[in-house]
Amino acid sequence: MSETILELKDVAIFQKENLVLNEVSLDVKKGDFVYLIGKTGSGKSSFMKTLYADLPLRQGEGSIAGFDLKSLKEKHIPHLRRKLGVVFQDFKLLPDRNINNNMLFVLKATGWKDNSKMKAKIEEVLDKVGMKTKGFKFPHELSGGEQQRVAIARALLNDPELILADEPTGNLDPQTSVEVMKVLQDINKSGRTILMATHDYALILKYPSKTLKCDGGKIFEVVQRTV
């Protein structure tokens, strides 16, 4: 039996006072690659934000990477986020420092102290995404696809149990999207669990996997038709 990384039971997800999703029950096992699809405004981002504790879980039961989302105290949120790698659509790289220093900032913020270990870790994650030679460049010197590769590398720094990728190809052209997707596929094959929100159906057809859909205030599994 695979270990469950994410489990939700009868969860309601709110954005302020508005109920966005209701009666959400699902489980994601270690090593899964799961898509989350749905129209803009269907609740995908609110769902993701609840998982990394940007929005509180107020109703239902939820556990993620060993943390209980319902009883999670604010002081424990940084510990939860160390177990998660979050990849955003707009990269969120710090523009005033080069890529190596972007990585260093995250490691120091999450409690790393040893300079040689930090340097080795940065090299390792950049190598994984094919960006080992680009550490001295600044974000504005990189293409969108390269910035997203760096963002994925950053998400790997603390060896997360689960990577949450929120529209990681949303700002990229089709060819670059495929390149970024290949990086995510390789990371998944090495045993990492990935939950990816996307509206890029071409990618889902090219790389079929378990798919959840946000629609009408619910999340349900979509059975993919084989063409």
Automatic annotation (TrEMBL):
<dbReference type="InterPro" id="IPR003439">
    <property type="entry name" value="ABC_transporter-like_ATP-bd"/>
</dbReference>
<dbReference type="GO" id="GO:0016887">
    <property type="term" value="F:ATP hydrolysis activity"/>
</dbReference>
<protein>
    <recommendedName>
        <fullName>Cell division ATP-binding protein FtsE</fullName>
    </recommendedName>
</protein>
<dbReference type="InterPro" id="IPR017871">
    <property type="entry name" value="ABC_transporter-like_CS"/>
</dbReference>
<comment type="similarity">
    <text>Belongs to the ABC transporter superfamily.</text>
</comment>
<dbReference type="GO" id="GO:0022857">
    <property type="term" value="F:transmembrane transporter activity"/>
</dbReference>
<dbReference type="InterPro" id="IPR003593">
    <property type="entry name" value="AAA+_ATPase"/>
</dbReference>
<keyword id="KW-0067">ATP-binding</keyword>
<keyword id="KW-0132">Cell division</keyword>
<dbReference type="GO" id="GO:0051301">
    <property type="term" value="P:cell division"/>
</dbReference>
<dbReference type="GO" id="GO:0005524">
    <property type="term" value="F:ATP binding"/>
</dbReference>
<dbReference type="GO" id="GO:0005886">
    <property type="term" value="C:plasma membrane"/>
</dbReference>
<dbReference type="Pfam" id="PF00005">
    <property type="entry name" value="ABC_tran"/>
</dbReference>
<keyword id="KW-0131">Cell cycle</keyword>
<dbReference type="InterPro" id="IPR027417">
    <property type="entry name" value="P-loop_NTPase"/>
</dbReference>
<comment type="function">
    <text>Part of the ABC transporter FtsEX involved in cellular division. Important for assembly or stability of the septal ring.</text>
</comment>
<dbReference type="InterPro" id="IPR015854">
    <property type="entry name" value="ABC_transpr_LolD-like"/>
</dbReference>
<keyword id="KW-0547">Nucleotide-binding</keyword>
<feature type="domain" description="ABC transporter">
    <location>
        <begin position="6"/>
        <end position="227"/>
    </location>
</feature>
